[in-house]
Amino acid sequence: MQAVFSLRNVAYRNILSISNLDIDSGMLFGITGKSGSGKTTLLKLLNNMLSCDAGEVLYYGTNVLMLDPVNLRRRVMMVPQAPYIFPGSVLENIQLVFHFNRKAVPAQAEIEKLFDLLGMSEVLAKSTANMSGGEKQRLALVRVLLLNPETLLLDEPTAALDDENARAVFSYLAKWVRKPGKTVVVVSHSGSLINEYGDSILELNDGRINSVKKRSGAHV
Questions:
Q1: pLDDT at residue 124 in the model
Q2: Cα 138 to Cα 188: distance, rounded to the nearest angstrom
Q3: Most-buried pick from 21, 54, 102, 180 (CB within 10 A)?
Q4: CB–CB of 217/177 below 8 Å?
Q5: Contact by Cβ (8 Å): 136, 105
Q6: Structural domains present in the chain
């Protein structure tokens, strides 16, 4: 496997200190750890939303500081725990995201299929003002999946979901990473789902690697 991300002697303030970490392509890579352990900080370092104070973060062998940040963030897209949702309809949200990324909006059938796979068919006709927190989380995920980046960075993407819908999201992501050139790095409070669907699981403790566990095969 090829390393998508490589971290070498990375330090960020007093929050994170990682001497060596590789995240391989084609993986659903899970990050766990107690609150304040540096999970979100690590995600933001991966697409240069934060810059490390020491060491380097490489994306396919190139220091992220050497890459154009706009281009990098189109290749490596992040969905925060509380994503911004534009006022208006669900479809307008998707259209705006594609407009900002200078891409053609997908066909209606493609949009509807993805919403259906994530248990979201009923929200297509909604105004975003009437959506729940969980629906907004999944809308944000649908938006980036439709944009089809190389790599997804997801910060607690199922925090506001019930078990059934959370499982649907992880099941879809586990299939998505099997496409050529795709990788998912996900922070999750749900240890059971990470253990079931993750290919590799990093546990952080006070900003340092406590363990990295790999398993063969993924639940699909």
A1: 86
A2: 14
A3: 21
A4: no
A5: no
A6: 3-83+149-214 (3.40.50.300)
